[in-house]
Amino acid sequence: MNILITGGAGFIGSHVVRQLVNKYPNYNIFNLDALTYAGNLENLKDIESATNYTFLKADITDEQAINSLFSKYKFEGVIHLAAESHVDRSIKEPLAFAKTNILGTMVLLNAFKNLWQNNWEGKRFYHISTDEVYGSLGATGLFTETTSYNPNSPYSASKASSDHFVRAYGETFGMPYVISNCSNNYGPNHFPEKLIPLFINNIINNKALPVYGDGLFTRDWLYVIDHARAIDLAFHKGKNGETYNIGGFNEWTNIDLIKLLCTLMDDKLGREKGASEKLITYVKDRPGHDLRYAIDATKINKELGWSPSVTFKEGLEKTINWYLDNKEWLNNVTSGNYKEYYKSQYN
Ligand code: NAD
Ligand code: DAU
Description:
alpha/beta; three-stranded mixed β-sheet; 12 helices; globular; binds 2'deoxy-thymidine-5'-diphospho-alpha-D-glucose
């Protein structure tokens, strides 16, 4: 079976690629990635020479390149993760998000349809999406699979749009699909523009920790390997035409999470208790900042038997250890263009 994974050089994608390459020696796993600032083949060093793994450098918005790869390799399954993924960047450059997340998804859907529309048996298009499509929760309640879409950022609007196109290809062309909407991931290989890896990097370097607004925004955190396990399960066992919400039942306000991170980092770095907390700096809020996300993951738990395998404290410890053991990875991704990004975002 030829399986295409898009965005496999990124944070979540690299964990999905590793899991499938190691677990399914009978599959040919193709990782298609444009290697934007967020894509890094260093993430896959340990499996790059596996006989069931092939890397394809291509842009999902390049219709000609994508069509010719689909006709050459006849992918029977697609697991689509490639995207522009950072909310702050979507505020600065919304068009790039429309192009990759909407148009890129459509190019893939079209290529898959053109290849298999008379023979859908055994084929599947799996679209990886986010809980941000549902918008913001108030103090109570959880996002379920039937919560209506209400995206607030250009990022979440572009993901919502791509979800709708996937569903439309299912309804209109009979394409077998599954969609999952996941909460905030954290773990090894996370690019240090997102909260947890950015703060770990800044603590290591004794730099200010920029907390947006009052720090009382709430996110539901899930260890990335548990997301990869859920993706494996939903790809193989999920029902056609269904959506699955994935989350950790693990809500934290940003400020509580940051304080926990500071305590764990002081301990790991042998610093005086309270040293890292002194780096906390409240800065201007993100425009359109969603107050709270929280996922009800009952459906995937009941129907597919998935639940998270690590506690938040275990996951955070593993994550911190990974960054401390992989300083070269961190140095490589924070040199060059990252410095420009950091200056324009935080100065
Ligand atoms: P990421 O930014 O770390 O990785 C994205 C990958 O896509 C990179 O390897 C990049 O090179 C590639 N890419 C970007 N544009 C491309 C293009 N035009 N053509 C081909 N490849 C391209 O993202 P991530 O955090 O790993 O997220 C992966 C997916 O999961 C995204 O679809 C995102 O919306 C979704 N998601 C992320 C989270 C999270 O917390 N990170 C949570 C829920 C859902
Ligand atoms: O919910 C799933 C989504 O989670 C994914 O779809 C996105 O791809 C992913 O980036 C993430 O989005 P968030 O906007 O929630 O993640 P981020 O790490 O950017 O921010 C988490 C919270 O921390 C949010 O409330 C904003 C805040 N924050 C973030 C940064 C980068 C800060 O206070 N300071 C910061 O410097």
